[in-house]
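Pilot study result, target chain (224 residues):
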Amino acid sequence: GSPFDFANQGMLYLPRDIPEPTRDGPTKEALTELGELIEAAGGRTLALFSSWRGVEMADEHLRKVLAELDIPIITQRRGDSVGMLVEKFSAMPTSVLLGTISLWQGIDVPGSACTLVAIDRIPFPRPDEPVMAARAKERDEAGGSGFMDVSLPRAALLLAQGTGRLIRSIDDRGVVAILDSRIVNKRYGSILLNSMPPFWRTSDGVVIKESLRRLHEAHLKDGK
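Predicted structure:
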């Protein structure tokens, strides 16, 4: 069991029309949507990426589109201390933290600093991960499915860990946004969704952005 009322405390945003991500990183449409979500939330965002390329592309895009807003952008670099990044993020409630796999688990930021967790893509193992690739190949050669038996469970675990960063106390409210349309447009998406907390789900971006604006205004009213 869980002490949290996920269906009332959190919303899961699953946009259907964003093009599927490519090996080159997030699509232009995904980055545009991310910027609009962050603006609506007034910052307060943990943005998780499955590659360093995604982090770099998001950093470049967001520094342009959010330049006139009071939203500090904290970007993880190779070798950075995760603890120091999280402390900085927590201390600036209207900031954005951009990071990769090391930030998908074990990050605990309750309160107003994190009302949006954005995930750029389903975190399937990369082809250059030798252990996962070997396990998948072994399953395929044994007559099973390396994708269904190895890659999909690994992605489901990481998604569960990433989405779990949103609700860290009984007072937390917010949105998880998964900017990868495959999770709603592919048959295997239901397996991934079932691995996550039971948030209220929608593909309506207007509803999500209005909810984020209301949360931001409520936090400002409370001096947070």
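One observation from the pilot: DSSP finds nine helices and seven strands in the chain. A full batch analysis is planned for the follow-on phase.
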